[in-house]
Amino acid sequence: MRTLENAMRRWGFYRVAGCDEVGRGCLAGPVVAAAVVLDPDRHIPGIADSKLVPRPERERLYEAITSRALAWSVASAGPQEIDDLNIHRASLMAMARAVLALAPLPDLVLVDAFRIPDLPMAQRPVLHGDRRCAAIAAASIVAKVTRDREMLVHHAADPRYGYDHHKGYATAEHLAAVAQHGYSALHRHSFRPPSLFDTIENA
Predict the structure, then answer these.
(1) Over the stretch 17-45, which tens digit does the pLDDT of each residue have?
(2) Are the C-beta atoms of residues 107 and 73 closer than 8 Å to each other?
(3) I need a surface site. Which of 4, 45, 84, 128 has the fewest CB within 10 A?
(4) Counting Cβ atoms within 10 Å, is residue 62 exposed (0-12), middle (13-18) or buried (19+)?
(5) pLDDT tens for residues 85-132?
């Protein structure tokens, strides 16, 4: 997975950041983005797309990435921003925030699938980047662990919706809780999956 970063370094880009986000498809909670600049001299075995890594391994990799990377950052866009902007624009904004929080700024940003508007440095969108690029995969892990931990905090504050199980995704359990309790401030009010109405009608 380091082939792309190594090629970019041969072209003169030393600080190569990977950027990814998680939570686009959730019914509740923020979209969280991370940016990671891996150290080419400190290989971290096991880095892969966060969706393919079991939770205990994600936690281990999170600690390894955040302790060994040259730089890393996380940023988010909350439910209100998602409702105001739409999920795509809010995701791009969260990714831009994460990249711009890196210190020093990277020479090049490799982004999973998308181009981030108005970045002050070179960037390259990489289709299926979280499976092709170690830095993007590392960012996906950092973003996923960060978001999951935040959703556990929200669950502790309001356990009615079961965020500890589904982390805000539109599972049957979550939809049934929304049918019973309605949307909360953590929910994206612009997200109205058809199955939600089926659940409400059959409740």
Answers:
(1) 999 999 999 999 999 999 999 999 999 99
(2) no
(3) 45
(4) buried
(5) 999 999 999 999 999 999 999 999 999 999 999 999 999 999 999 999
The residues, ordered by sequence, that sit 6+ positions from 28 with a Cβ below 8 Å of its Cβ are 79, 154, 161, 163, 168, 174, 184, 186, 187, 188
Query: For the chain, how many residues are written?
Result: 203
93, 117 Cβ separation under 8 angstroms: no
Contact 161, 178 (CB under 8 A): yes
E strands, the chain, in order: 16-22, 31-37, 71-77, 108-112, 122-126
Alpha carbon distance 55, 160 (integer Å): 23
CA pair distance 65, 124, nearest whole angstrom: 22
DSSP H helical ranges for 16-133: 55-68, 79-85, 87-100, 129-132
Q: Which residues on neighbouring strands pair with residue 109, listed in sequence order?
A: 17, 123
> Hey, what domains does the chain have and what are their CATH numbers?
3-149 (3.30.420.10)
Number of H helices, E strands in the chain: 9, 5
d(CA 180, CA 31): 25
